[in-house]
Amino acid sequence: MIAMMRWLNLSGLGWALGLTLSVSVVNTGVAQRVCGLPAAAVCGYQHAACGAGLEGIPVDANTHIGPPEWYTPDVPRDATVIVNYNGFPEEAMLAFDYAVDIWSVLLTSDVTVRIDAFWTDLGAGALAQAGPSNLHQNFANAPISDTYYPAALANALAGEDLSEQSDLECTFNSTANWYLGTDGNTPVGTYDFVTAALHELAHGLGFIGSAYYTNGFGFLGTANIPYPYDHFTETQDSVALLDLPNGSQTLGAALTSDHIYWNGANGMEGVGGGRPRLYAPANYQVGSSYSHLNETTYSPGTPNSLMTPGLNTAESNHNPGPALLGIFVDMGWVIGGCQILEVEIGEQGACNPDSDTYTQALVLTYQAPPTTGLIQVNGSLFSLGDSPQTLVLTGLPSDGQAVHLDIGFTANSECSVFIPQAFTAPASCYCLTDLSENGLTEVQDLLLLLADFGCLVGCEGDVNGDGASNVEDVLAVLSAFGGSCP
């Protein structure tokens, strides 16, 4: 029997962590426009992270998706976020705080995430821009070597602040017709600011690729070094984009094929088992192509619509959605903090006739456990190990009854799971009528009982458990006479 406890329908924990020692930092400048190289060098090649950013579509969608059902203001946060506001009006700050709070409940990081947020005129059409402020490669615990990780993700994986600078930057168009409420009831003709903020924060946290395109030729990488995002993109024929010749027309054709897909297992689970379709129109769109989900496939009002390149008026989506969260897990983020993801019921030991007890093995899979304390299972305590961790319960009574499991961490009472009727105990194997303990009920047992006959307290011949050695015990021995014990 396998009992499973999963949150957000994510089956994996992301990448296994390796260990490298060198650390390098790339200062990427401001917003989505610059990623690694100087602005002129990157944007001159129509880098995916350059251009107008989130596009406003002045067509009322009249759709609303609320925040995740488990989101409440008093849910414990698994990441600390500090925002440095520049020019923001008070109402916009409150709306941005709300979007940040949704992400802070989702993401797990022991390192504070620092955001620079700007409120300025971006011109007509553009609603917002965002991107990581710094990129890091080959840091301790980097899942993939020679890959530029956005700062917030790199810090979370490394367990330390690798640059002590802002991790991401978001810029919002001060002239856009924003709806700054947090209820998602976006009036016609206005753009929901919370939706835009969630979208841009996702870019800054890692939903961004390194592709760029010019004159029919496609490129991947900042100084030929890819991002985590790039490792999971492929063509319709399942050819990894990183396997295509860099700087080639072949890669350029793929980037404008309208058929680029995500192949990470968790992102695929987020769309029900297929491949999330990325935005790759025939007319390459700087700042939109490649680093978004497909607008047609994930239309307004559908669960995975947050990361499409356009936001309609009267459209609100306050839920990152299963595809985006799965993509984040594929890239290395831990979503949801401390969780017990799966409890597998392992081997059950046979009943021990000497004690009438048995053992039961469990395999516990968890993520982001507390750094101190112990694991507790039905009151038994175990030291923390590596997930998945095998635990063996001992001295359990053999009574043939269903056993419930209450599993958690002593240092975090919120991180727990209760599994009713997880397994069934074996039947009792204690042979009460075998007083001589030779595996049989025979003359010797009857003689021992008769020698103790009439005892009223602490009687060795008490077979039926009433405390005395009497006629009922004799009848029980005679009933089992000649038989062997289990």
The total beta strand count reads: 26
- Provide mean pLDDT, rounded: 84
Rg over CA atoms: 31 Å
Task: Compute the separation of the termini in Å.
Answer: 25 Å
Tell me the quaternary state.
Answer: single chain
Largest sheet: 6 strands, mixed
Helix content: 10-25%
Domain module count: 3
Beta-strand portion reads 25-35%
Helical element count? 9
Low-confidence stretches: 1-52
Strand order of the largest sheet: 5-6-10-7-3-18
Alpha-beta content class: alpha+beta
The gross shape turns out to be elongated
Structural features, described:
This protein has 486 residues and is α+β, with helices and mostly antiparallel strands. It folds into three domains: 321 residues, no CATH class; 86 residues, Immunoglobulin-like (Sandwich), CATH 2.60.40; 56 residues, Type 1 dockerin domain (Orthogonal Bundle). 17% of the residues lie in helices and 26% in strands. It is built from nine helices and 26 strands. The chain has a six-stranded mixed β-sheet. Strand 13 and strand 14 form a beta hairpin. Helix 8 packs antiparallel against helix 9. The two termini are 25 Å apart. The N terminus is likely disordered.
Provide a short characterization of the protein structure.
By secondary structure, the protein is of the alpha+beta class. The protein has helices at 39-43, 90-106, 151-158, 193-205, 249-255, 265-270, 322-331, 443-451, 471-480; strands spanning 2-4, 24-27, 54-57, 63-65, 81-86, 113-120, 126-132, 134-137, 149-150, 168-173, 178-179, 191-192, 212-214, 217-219, 233-235, 260-262, 277-278, 310-312, 315-317, 339-348, 357-367, 375-377, 380-382, 389-397, 402-409, 412-424.
